[in-house]
């Protein structure tokens, strides 16, 4: 595979990205999974952030993005979002979701952790932004809901923020900017409780977009005992998940 990847320093960069964000697994299937999740999360945030920069008339900053690269011309490991056998990687779906006609995005403050230990449980507070991107030609009345969910318990650590507003046509609607939220404690845990910020966007009562901002790096989070069930119904071509 080393001779099939033409990117400069590809092995060093790939290992750096994975090791900084995840607990490294060294069997090939698990390591492949981690590299693809890294790619998908990177593309998710990048495309949402670039789309946010389309802004509004008089304040346009980014008018488009070139997907590079779409697919591989030989079996290899690369930054393509579709492999040689035309199997779509997670990044393909991350990009597709970020380019929906109506989409919601979240960013949260993320301190530099590459120079030292930065467990999410050590952070007392963070700032976050929430925005709506629309490629529709008409203003759309939408319902936005922002939740703050404990990773340990799966419960809300504070009241959700719900609002009904109009998403401006062909542009970005900034909803929350530099909002500060303090890490809360739960009844089950008196220590700092890492949490995700989850936003959902509904149009005419139907869910059309979601986004989630995690405390990073993910490798320090305890994700054991998630009680997530997965069933595959091959005869019906369906997958069922429960939690």
TrEMBL record:
Its domain of life?
Eukaryota
Q: Which PANTHER family match?
A: BETA-MANNOSIDASE
Q: Which InterPro entries match?
A: Beta-mannosidase_GH2, Mannosidase_ig
Protein name, entry field: Beta-mannosidase B like protein
Record keywords, A-Z: Glycosidase, Hydrolase
Q: Name the Gene Ontology molecular function terms of this record.
A: beta-mannosidase activity
Q: Would the keyword Disulfide bond be found if you checked this record's keyword annotation?
A: no
What is one Pfam family matched by this protein?
Mannosidase_ig
Q: Name one GO biological process term.
A: glycoprotein catabolic process
The UniProt record lists the Mannosidase Ig/CBM-like domain at 127-220
């Amino acid at each position: 595979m080393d001779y099939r990847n033409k990117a400069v320093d590809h092995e060093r960069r790939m290992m750096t990205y994975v090791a900084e964000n995840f607990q490294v697994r060294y069997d090939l299937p698990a390591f492949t999974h981690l590299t693809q999740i890294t790619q998908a999360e990177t593309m998710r945030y990048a495309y949402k952030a670039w789309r946010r920069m389309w802004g509004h008339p008089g304040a346009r900053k980014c008018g488009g993005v070139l997907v590079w690269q779409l697919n591989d011309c030989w079996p290899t490991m690369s930054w393509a979002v579709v492999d040689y056998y035309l199997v779509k990687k997670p990044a393909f779906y991350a990009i597709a979701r970020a380019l929906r006609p109506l989409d919601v995005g979240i960013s949260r403050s993320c301190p530099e952790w590459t120079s030292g230990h930065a467990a999410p449980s050590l952070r007392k507070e963070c700032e976050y932004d929430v925005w709506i991107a629309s490629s529709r030609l008409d203003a759309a009345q939408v319902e936005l809901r922002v939740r703050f969910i404990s990773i340990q318990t799966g419960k809300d650590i504070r009241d959700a923020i719900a609002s009904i507003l109009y998403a401006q046509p062909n542009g970005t609607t900034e909803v929350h900017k530099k909002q500060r939220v303090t890490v809360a404690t739960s009844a089950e845990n008196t220590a700092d409780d890492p949490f995700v910020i989850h936003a959902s966007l509904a149009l005419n009562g139907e869910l059309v977009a979601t986004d989630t901002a995690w405390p990073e790096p993910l490798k320090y989070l305890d994700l054991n005992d998630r009680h997530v069930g997965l069933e595959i119904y091959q005869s019906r071509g369906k997958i069922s998940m429960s939690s």
